Amino acid sequence: xxxxxxxxxxxxxxxxxxxxxxxxxxxxxxxxxxxxxxxxxxxxxxxxxxxxxxxxxxxxxxxxxxxxxxxxxxxxxxxxxxxxxxxxxxxxxxxxxxxxxxxxxxxxxxxxxxxxxxxxxxxxxxxxxxxxxxxxxxxxxxxxxxxxxxxxxxxxxxxxxxxxxxxxxxxxxxxxxxxxxxxxxxxxxxxxxxxxxxxxxxxxxxxxxxxxxxxxxxxxxxxxxxxxxxxxxxxxxxxxxxxxxxxxxxxxxxx
Length: 255
Description:
Layout: E1 7-10, H1 35-40, H2 44-47, E2 52-56, E3 62-71, H3 85-99, E4 105-113, H4 122-136, E5 141-146, H5 159-163, H6 175-182, E6 185-199, H7 201-208, E7 216-218, E8 227-230, E9 235-248
C-alpha cells in the first residue's frame, strides 16, 4: 500500500473508528507501564478527539494513528519545554483541560503505524497531517518529545550526543529525528526524564524476560538507556530521555 492511498482525518470526524485505534504496536511492554502514560494515554482519543488522527486504507481499515494534545506552554511557571518531556506534557494537557486553561501549543504524543505498513512513508505523512491539524486550529507551534527510533542500538551513548549526530547532508542520523527535521522541525533540547518506569524485580522480569538479579545498570531490549536494578530494595528504575523538537506552524511548512 502506498501512503498516498490513505485517508487521514481526526477522530472527531470519524468517531466510529475509536475502537479500531488500538491495533498491535511496537512499543516495548515496559514502556506501557509508565504510570503517567497508563493513566492518561488511553483517554486522549476520548478527551481530545479533534487532536487524534486516524488513517485508513482504501478498504477502511485503520493503518496508523496519531495522538496530540493542546496545552498551555506560555503561562506562569512553565514557558520552557519541560525536562519531564512526554510525561509532563500529558499531565499539563489534562490539567489544562480540567481547569479550562487557555491553551497555546500542541504537543505530539505518538505516531504509530501498523507493523505491516511500516516502510511506506506513512509516519511522515501522519506527522504532516498532525502539523496541519494544529495549524488549522490556530496554533502557531507543534512540539514533540521524540523517542528516536535508532537510539536503542546505542543505549550507552548520551542522548544529546546521539540527537545531534548528523549525516553528510546535515540531517540527523536518526531516522525519526530526520523525519521531523525534514518536515520543518528544529531540535530544541533534551528532556532527560521524559518517561519513567519503576517496578519490582518480578514486574521487570515479566515485562522483559530478563533476570534482574544483579545490582547496577541493565540493558533492556528496546531501551534507549539502561535500567537500574537495586536488588536490596527490590526496585528497578528506568528513566528515559527524549528529544524536544519544535515545529513552527506560521506557514504550511516545506513542500
